[in-house]
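User: Quick sanity check before I run a bigger batch. Here is a single chain. Can you write out its predicted 3D structure?
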Amino acid sequence: MPKISFVLPTCNRLEWVGECIQSLIEQSEKDIEIIIVNDASTDGTKEFLDDWATKDPRVKVFHNATNQGGGQSRNIGAALATSELIGVCDDDDLYPVDRAEVTLRWFAEHPEGELVNFPYVRIDYFGDIMPPPFYGAEFDEIGFKEKAVVNYFCNPSVAYKKKSAEEIGGYQPENKEQTDDIQFLTNWIKAGKKVGFDNRAFGVMHRVLPDSMMSKQRGFKTEWAVSK
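Assistant: Done. Predicted structure follows.
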C-alpha cells in the first residue's frame, strides 16, 4: 500500500498534463501512486497517458467511457486509490518536489486530522510565478465556515482521508453557481469534518487559465496570459 495516492482527473489538457505528471513522479517521497482519470478526452490524451503508465508502475490510468465531469472523476480516482490518504491534483498545475513529504508529515503530526490545506502560488500560462505571490495563508477559516468564503482555499493543494470523504459522498457535480471543489469543501464543513492548515510549505503551483471555472467565477485578468 502506498503512503499517499494522488488523484488526477484530466480532460483535453494534453498541453499541460504531462508536466503535471512529471512533477508528481519526481516527488522526494517515492512510495506513492498516481491515479489518472481520463474523462473521455478527444485530443490524444488517452494514448499519451497509456504511454506514461508503461514507464512507471506507480502511474495507473482509468479511462471514462463518457464525460463524467471533474467531481465524479475525482470520486472515481479516489475509489481506485489504495492509500487512505488522497492528494488532490489538477491537470494544469505543477507540484513541488516535497508535496507528498510535507503532507505525510502533517498527518503524522495530526493523526486525528481529516483534511489539510497548504498555501499556494499562482503561475501563468508559461509556468512563471505571478507577482505578487499568492500564498493562500490569508485563508479566512471563520468566513469559510459561516459563509463558505473560499477565495484563499485552493483545492489542488488539499489532501484528505479517503474514509472521511466517503462519509460525505465525495465530490458533487459542478454547476454554474459552484465548482465541484467549493461544494466539496462546503459539505465537508457542514458535516463537521476537521480542516487543518499547514503554512510551512507550498502545496501547489496553481496555473490560472481563462477557461477554468475558477477564473470564470472569480475573475481572470488578461495580463496573466500575456505572451513573452
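Residues 4-225 form a domain with the Spore Coat Polysaccharide Biosynthesis Protein SpsA; Chain A fold (CATH 3.90.550.10).

User: Great, the batch can go ahead then.
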